[in-house]
Amino acid sequence: MASAKLLDMLNQAIARELQVSIQYMWQHVQWKGVKHYAVTEGFKETAVAEMKHAEKIADRLWYLGGKPTTKPSVIDVGDKLGDMLNFDVKAELEAIGMYKEIMDIAQKEGDVATREIFEEIEEEEEEHHDFFSSLLEK
């Protein structure tokens, strides 16, 4: 049986994944200029990947007896390209930290499946962080 803390953290993770899925999609829509064409697919692909993370986490939470949230965390789209990317880098770093904490809790509770799910998702979040960080460098 999963602890209340783990169930709560899984719901926080779902809310975060919903947040960034919306955030990245709106940034894709709002981002204009020459650089838009160079990265437009990257933003859309990342938004879709984040939605798939939300689904995977929700499936796990439901299996463990929890009820997945439908409410995203606060969405920070930004108005300028630099603001957008700074919000995105911050969101990915927060996710990486949260997911490492979830993996630690799952490990302590003997929940190998949850730990493995978050190992996979955390690796993808590191790739997203690299994508947004690279765009900030240009």
Describe this structure in words.
- This protein is an all-alpha fold and 138 residues long.
- The protein has one domain (4-137): Ferritin, core subunit, four-helix bundle (Ferritin), CATH 1.20.1260.10.
- It is 80% helix and 0% strand.
- The longest helix is centred in the middle third of the chain and has 30 residues, at 34-63.
- It is elongated.
Helix/strand-derived class? mainly alpha
State mean pLDDT (0 to 100 scale).
94
Total separate domains? 1
Order of helices and strands: HHHH
Oligomer: single chain
CATH class: Mainly Alpha
| CATH homologous superfamily identity | Ferritin, core subunit, four-helix bundle
**Can you tell me the CATH topology?**
Ferritin
Total strands: 0
Any idea what the CATH architecture is? Answer: Up-down Bundle
Largest sheet: none
Helical residue percent band: over 70%
Shape: elongated
Straight-line distance between termini = 47 Å
Any low-confidence stretches, pLDDT <50, length ≥5? none
* Radius of gyration over all CA atoms, rounded: 15 Å
How much strand content do the residues show?
under 5%
Query: Tally the helices: what do you get?
Result: 4
Give the structure's gist in a few sentences.
The protein is about 80% helix and about 0% strand. The chain has about 140 residues and is mainly alpha-helical.
